[in-house]
Amino acid sequence: MQDPFVLGWEEWLALPDLGLPAIKAKVDTGARTSAIAVSAVEEIGTLKQPKVRFVVRPIPGRDDVVVTCIADVIDRREITSSNGETEQRYVVRTLARMGGREWPIDITLANRNAMAYRMLLGRQAVKDDMFVDPATSFRQPQLSYRSYGTAVRSEPAKRALTIALLSRRPENPSNRRLVRLAEQRGHAMPIIDRRRLSLYIAATEPAILVNGLPLEPIDAVIFRAGKSPSHFSLAIVRQMELLGTLAINGADALMRAGDAIVLRQVLAGAAIAVPEVAVNPKDLSRSTGGVEHVLADSLGALGAAPILRFAVVGGRALGAIERAPVTALDQSPEWHTTDYTGNELAAGRKLAEQAARTIGLGLAAVDVALSRAGPLVVDMTANVSLSQFERLTGISLAEAVIVHIERAVEARALLKADVSEEA
Predict the structure, then answer these.
(1) Containing H/E element for 44?
(2) Helix axis angle, 386-393 relative to 397-422, nearest 10°?
(3) What is the layout of strands, in order, in the sheet containing 191-192?
(4) How many domains does the chain have?
(5) 295 lies in a domain?
(6) Of the candidates 380, 354, 361, which has an alpha carbon nearest to the alpha carbon of residue 271?
(7) Per-residue pLDDT tens over the stretch 127-174
(8) What's 135's domain CATH number?
(9) pTM of this prediction?
(10) Is residue 184 part of a domain?
C-alpha cells in the first residue's frame, strides 16, 4: 500500500507558477480557502480574462526579497479574518507543489504582510487522501529560503515592450512562465503561431503578415520550437531582424545550433573542445537519424562521463543540472540537481558560456561532458526547458530572459542614439 500523505500543522510548499520556490504555510483546516499575504494588488488583463498582479514578500523579516506575481482571477469573495474583519479579496488558482506532488489550489489574496505565516493552507487544499496531524510539523520535505538568494534581482523595466513569442504551444509550461514574467514586468508577450504568418520580401518596405494583415511592431522576439527549426521558421526570425526586431536568438545562430555537424564544426573552429566525430558521404546522404546515430556512437566512447546541462542567458551560465546515467532499456535521459561544485563546475560553466557566445545564442542549454581529458561540449539547443531548470535549481530563468531582453533593447536604443548624434 502507498504510504499516506500526512501534513503537520506547518509545512513548506512551492507555488511554481507564481515564482515562489519556497514558502512556509500554516495548515489551517478551520479556514475554507487558502490565503497568502500580498501587497500592491493591481487588476490587469481583460474583462474576458481578468488577471491580477501582486507582490509577495515570502520571507518574514526580509522586506528586501520581493517577488512580483501574476495570476488569473477566478472569483472575488468577502472573507472574514480571524480578528473579525471582513474584506473583499481576489481569489486566484495556481499549482501547489509539496513532497513530490502537484495539485491546483485556490488562494485568496490578503492585502497585508502582518501575518505570522505568509500563507495559510485551508481545508479545500487538503485532498481526500491527505491527513493532517496537528500534533506534528514538517511531515513533508523541507524547503529553504536560500532558493531566493539565487533568483534574479533586477530594477523595474524602464519602458513597456512588446515581446513576441513564436511558438505553436501556448500551453507549454516554459511558454506560460515567460508570458507571466513578461506581464509581471509590464510588458506584452503575444504568442504567435508561425503557421499563421506569411512574409513579404522586398528591398523596400518588407513585411510580415498575420492572417493577411501586417504584424504590429515588435520590440523583441523569442523563438521556441524544436531543436532543428525549419527553413521557413528561420526566415520568419530573419525577417523580424530585418524589420529591426531584437532576436534573443537570431536566425543564423538558430541555424548553427540546429545542425549537429555545423555546430561541431563552428565550435571546433573556435578551439572549443568537442567529441571527435567522423562523418562520411554515406551518412550525409541518409536521413537526419543516420547522422544522429554516428554522433551518439561518438559520445559512447566517453563512457560514464557525467554530463551537465548549463542554462546560458545573455552569455552567462545561471545554473546547471546533471543527467542521470542512461540504461540500455531506457534511452530517455532524466535530469536532476547536480552535486558538482568547485573547479569542475567552474570549468564546465566557462566552456558553456564560450560555446553559447561562439554560436551566437542569447538563450541556450549547453550540455558539457566532464571527461577525463577535460570538459567537452556535446550538445546545445536554443529550445531551453525553463520550467525544468527552475524546478531543479530554484533559479528564475524566465525573469533572467526578460531582463536580458530589456537591457539589450535599451543598449540598442542608446547605440542608435549615439550614431544619430555622430551623423
Answers:
(1) strand 39-45
(2) 120
(3) 191-192, 163-166, 220-223, 246-247
(4) 1
(5) no
(6) 354
(7) 988 999 999 999 999 998 887 765 555 555 677 899 999 998 888 888
(8) 2.40.70.10
(9) 0.68
(10) no
